[in-house]
Amino acid sequence: MKVKIKLSLHFLGSLIILGIFVLCMIVLLSTSLNYLIIWCTSDESIATYIVNQKLLPILPYLAIIVFCLLYGWWIGSDFFYILEWILLLSKGAYQEPNRKRRNTNIGQYKKPRFSLYHDIFIQLRALTEILKRNDLEKKELEKMRKEWTAGISHDLKTPLTYIKGYSFMLSSAEHEWSEQERQEFASLIKKQAIHMENIIEDLNTVFHFDHGQFPLNLNKQDISQFIYGMVIEITENPIVKQKNISIGINTTQSVPFTFDEQMLKRAMNNLLMNAIIHNPNDTEIMISINKSDKLEIIISDNGVGMNNETIQNLFNRYYRGTSTKIPSEGTGLGMSIAKQLIEAHQGSLSVDSTLNKGTVIRISFKLDFN
């Protein structure tokens, strides 16, 4: 509406200027005509006078044409500048056209000749910056996606190599394996097969989330007991025992909550395993459950912490970074999946971490979630 009013006012102003110009030309030429008539009748022949009488009425029209051309160039130069700008954007060149800037200092933007285009210039500059920023984010995401794809290929190839190798050994007729050796080989094959299954399950989960095909099977139960049972299960993990990780629970009350047991278990497991894998031996992890106007689950540790880059990318789908010297494992989807599963329960998740001091993850849910 604002642009329409400005356009109407500028159009009206242009008509007024054009009218004044034509009126001045008529007055000027009428005066000149009188002088020419006197001059022609006194000093020139009748034929010359007649010729002048026929040519002079054409001059106002010529003046109007010249004025329209100059006025059109004055208005149209900014219009063609805008067209050139849009053409650059369409070709992926997210920058303003490189022309000589009028009445501007170094580092300043070109100003439109016609004030009507001022808002359009502002919006185009904002659009250019947004497109430039989106393009940089797209390139960064594409780089991460390629690295992630290479990592997934490696993660799938490694267990396949184990499975293939031990399978050939078991099926070889050149050596007679003892029963104990067969059991060890079978156990290793099973472990690698489970690892591959987890990778495929992560990929399948992401696919369902992207297509909105992830219904929750909601049931109401005590979430304190649920987390307590889950922690007992995690402490049996060989990695936890090997690294001597201690996991404690701080809660004194029963908290009934409606949730999908399988999905929330997976989210919590991803968060806890991330803390277990990326922290050194003897790290202490504490889980606190608080209930007020909302349900809050806090996972804190006294580990190595994370830098700002890791915190910012922690829940990005393709991020596989780590602030420790421990090799990156898994698909890089675990934390992203955990965040999506929590948000599917209408929850929120935040991270606060300091290098060499530890990390705190806060999960908040509405108590009346249904």
At a glance:
The protein has 370 residues and is of the alpha+beta class.
Description of the structure:
The structure is a single chain. The chain is an alpha+beta fold. It folds into three domains: 2-98; 147-210, Signal transduction histidine kinase, dimerisation/phosphotransfer (DHp) domain (Helix Hairpins, Orthogonal Bundle); 219-366, Histidine kinase-like ATPase, C-terminal domain (Heat Shock Protein 90), CATH 3.30.565. 60% of the residues lie in helices and 12% in strands. The chain has ten helices and seven strands. The protein has helices at 2-43, 46-55, 59-90, 118-171, 179-210, 223-235, 238-243, 261-277, 308-313, 334-344; strands at 219-222, 246-250, 256-259, 284-291, 294-301, 348-354, 358-366. The protein has a five-stranded mixed sheet, covered by helices on one side. Strand 6 (348-354) and strand 7 form a beta hairpin. Helix 3 packs parallel to helix 4 (118-171), helix 4 (118-171) runs antiparallel to helix 5 (179-210) and helix 8 runs antiparallel to helix 10 (334-344). It is elongated, with a radius of gyration of 38 Å. The two termini are 43 Å apart. Residues 101-107 and 322-328 have low confidence and may be disordered.
